[in-house]
Amino acid sequence: MNKIWLIIQREYWVRVRKKSFIIMTFLTPILFAALMIIPAIVARSSLFQEEKVIQVLDKTNFFAQKLKETSKIKFTYLQGEINEVRKKFEQDENTYALLIIPEMTLADPKGFRIVSKKSISLETEIYIKDELERIIREERMRALGIKQEDLEKTKARVSILTETQEGKESSSGVIYAVSFIAAILIYMSVLLYGVQVMRSVIEEKTNRIVEVMVSSVKPIQLMLGKIIGVAGVGLTQFLLWIVLSFALSSVASSIFLKKEVSQDTLQKVQKVATNDFEKTEKAEEKVPFEKISNAFATLNLPLILACFLFYFVGGYLLYSALFAAIGSAGDNETDAQQFTLPVTLPLIIAFVLAQGIINEPNSGLAFWLSMIPFTSPIVMMVRIPAGVPNWEIILSMVLLVIGFLAITWLAARIYRIGILMYGKKVNFKELGKWLIMKN
Q: Which of 103, 404, 421, 424 has a Cα-to-Cα distance from 357 of 20 to 30 A?
């Protein structure tokens, strides 16, 4: 046991002291925060607030002066022949696009065209389309004698509150998000740290360091030391990511919440000034941030975090044993690549099916995939936020532990021979012989 502990310490400290580990540990939370904050800042900046002038040639006179303008889209109305207007448009550098409305009837509206010097943005195209449909709808209602006020009275807004049979409020959106994030984290971490084990084995085999090490320790001890050591590196990095992400989110939320509070206070002052505060205060719905916070409060977060830690470690240990065996079977990464896809295929299948399982977490397929050790780390973490019976979780955990022990035993039989094998192309048939070969 002391020898395994020495190997674990070596594998851990060699990786933790690397500059790449330190840089990625601190850089990853910053990158994630930037991915969430920068798009929102850029979208509100002047870069996306450029005014777009759109000329309108309306041959029907149904749409004249009826297209609503926004802070970014302005309309100017023209008269004349289509060819002449198009020539003038091509010479006008300040015009974004030309909307041509041909002669037609409201019963059969067709033939709309948008001419632009460059590709028109999707947002602008959708806005123009919605405005044209709105005007046509209003004209048809006027022709039928239907008032807009009467139509508005028929509209109803339905709000549905979802809850469990225990009476606890739930949110399918938050459950979906938590499940999907858990699946992505386990999928990426198992592959990332599993490949690190494979590369470590190949590197030591190529440098012939392993020949010195196996003279003092058994191959199974060397393999377990590598697996557990890299697992410690992964857990350390995850914990640091969580702490740094929480710190960054706290700073970001304090900055943005101050702005939101000031804007909200200003709105309330305006409502008081118009003597409409009480009426609008009762009609206001919950702020989305408050809804999300309440939805998170209904989740069993301690259970989710505990299960995530178990399935992260369990899934990593199982696949790392396979990656260690793969690394020992080849002299370089190119030789090991032929075995990588068959080994990772169950993990890929589980991730691909995760979205469907999120929608139907209690289906038969979801149950059986959460019991198979190769797919349970992802599938069970997808199901747990939606609620899974305790006996299913326990059974899945037990099967994962048994699967890890069985796979480690099989991988060790390949590792003990492959780690000292040089200059030979290994195939699946050869691996099968190593499995049944006696010591």
A: 404
